[in-house]
Every structure is written in C-alpha cells, then in structure tokens.
C-alpha cells in the first residue's frame, strides 16, 4: 500500500460538506456500517472477463476498499480528505491498495483505464456537470461501473422514524444531495442517469435488504458522523442529538438496505 498526493479542486458548499468527515475520521470508521459480501459478489460476477485494476471514488476510511481489495483487484482509492485518507491507509495496510489524496475531478489517470470504477455512498459528492465524462474516460471499453450505498440511519418503525424526524426538522430542513425519482423503466438515481447516457449499457439495479439492531448509543454515534449534523456548530449539534436520543428506545432496528447500480462501458 502506498499513498499519493494529488491536487484537489474543492469549491462550493457541497464540496465543503464533502470535506467535513475528516473531523471525525476515527468515529466514522468505528460507527459507519460496512457493506455485505453480496455487493462484491454481484459486482465481480457482472464484470467481465475479470477485474485486475479498480478505481474507488470517495473511499472514506476503506469500508468498501477492503471488500474489493480483499478479493484480489488492485485498488486505487481516491479520497479527498487527508484525515480520512490516513485512516484509509491504516485500515488497508497489507492489501493491494494505493491511496490517492484527491477529488474525483482532480484525479490524474496514470496508465490504462480501469477495469472497474466504483463508489460507496459517495457518488452524490461528485460534480454533476463532469462526473459521467470523467467516468467514461477512466473506465476501459467493456469495463464496469458500480455505484452503491447505504447509510443505515432510517429507523424501521415508521412511527419512531417520524418522531425522530419531527425533532430533526426543528433544526435541519428537509434536503437531498442527489436526484430523487425513477426513470420510466423504474431505475432509481444514479442508474437513471447511466441509462440515459449512451456511453454505458447493460444497466442493472439490485436492492439488497438488510435490517440491523443497534443500541441507542450506537445509532446516535452513527448520526454524529453524517455531514447533515457535522455542518452544525457543536453547541447546536450535541443538543439536537440528545433530543433525538430521548425519542429512542434502548435498542433500535434500522433499515440498512443497500442499493447497487451496475453498468458497462461501451
């Protein structure tokens, strides 16, 4: 494993939010959920003929990096936040991983295009105007694009989820960093955009159900690693999380389903 530093091109409020995670990098690694083996099974089973080289966009602390690098591919893990990258380097030590400190937009390709480009709960941080051009340039013809995510923060009990939302909305507005809605074929974003781009084909969507039980403390700790809360001043964030905690039972069942989109570069 080696670390490479590249130029970052951060700008705008969304880009700034993408860089708040380094303030809680160790907590992120401890409390954020990983991904089931089924994700790698589906991605590597879809790819053809094999995946020797993969690029990960927004690798974070390496939750998905370890999933793929542990299966054999050499992974170039692109992560813009140096503090997150330091944890990433530590958690992938001994695996075939190169950590590059860069945004997706600032990443410089050295060598041939990749067999696989993937992102785990990070694609919404990329720039809409350029992300598909960048993807097309970085993936070889016949190569695979895999975009998936799960926050594991939605409470399975609808009444309890609504009670928490009422508290949250006293401080935070409703928001979304990604495009909602489905295409005419029933494809959710970002698969809907892959379908609409003729540089990609064989688009698939897979929903992997997963429910987990977590303690109140574990759930609140996870919430504390989300940019929605991290963007708040500490004297606002901590009381808000405490008020949410007052609504929660000792143990919380969360919907941690993973949605995966696959596509092939023409």
TrEMBL record:
One of its GO terms (biological process) is methylation. Pfam families: Methyltransf_11. Keywords: Methyltransferase, Transferase. Residues 55-146 form the Methyltransferase type domain. Gene3D superfamilies: Vaccinia Virus protein VP39. The keyword Transferase applies. One of its GO terms (molecular function) is S-adenosylmethionine-dependent methyltransferase activity. Belongs to the methyltransferase superfamily. This is SAM-dependent methyltransferase. The lineage of its organism: Bacteria, Bacillati, Actinomycetota, Actinomycetes, Propionibacteriales.
């Amino acid at each position: 494993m080696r670390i490479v530093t590249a130029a970052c091109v951060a700008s705008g409020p969304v880009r700034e939010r993408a860089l708040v995670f380094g303030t809680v990098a160790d907590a992120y690694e401890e409390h954020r959920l990983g991904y089931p083996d089924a994700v790698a099974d589906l991605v590597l089973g879809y790819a053809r003929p094999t995946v020797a080289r993969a690029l990960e966009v927004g690798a974070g602390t390496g939750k998905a990096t370890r999933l793929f690098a542990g299966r054999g591919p050499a992974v170039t893990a692109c992560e813009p936040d140096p503090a997150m990258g330091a944890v990433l380097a530590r958690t992938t030590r001994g695996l075939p991983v190169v950590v590059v400190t860069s945004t997706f937009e600032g990443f410089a390709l050295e060598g041939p295009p990749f067999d696989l480009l993937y992102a785990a709960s990070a694609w919404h941080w990329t720039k809409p105007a350029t992300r598909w051009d960048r993807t097309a340039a970085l993936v070889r013809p016949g190569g695979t694009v895999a975009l998936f995510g799960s926050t594991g923060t939605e409470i399975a009990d609808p009444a309890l989820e609504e009670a928490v939302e009422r508290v949250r909305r006293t401080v935070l507005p409703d928001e979304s960093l990604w495009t909602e809605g489905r295409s005419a074929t029933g494809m959710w974003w970002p698969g809907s955009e892959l379908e609409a781009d003729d540089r990609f084909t064989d688009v698939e969507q897979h929903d992997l159900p997963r429910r987990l039980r977590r303690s109140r403390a574990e759930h609140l700790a996870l919430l504390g690693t989300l940019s929605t809360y991290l963007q708040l001043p500490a004297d606002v964030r901590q009381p808000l999380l405490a008020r949410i905690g007052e609504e929660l039972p000792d143990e919380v069942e969360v919907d941690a389903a993973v949605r995966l989109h696959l596509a092939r570069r023409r």
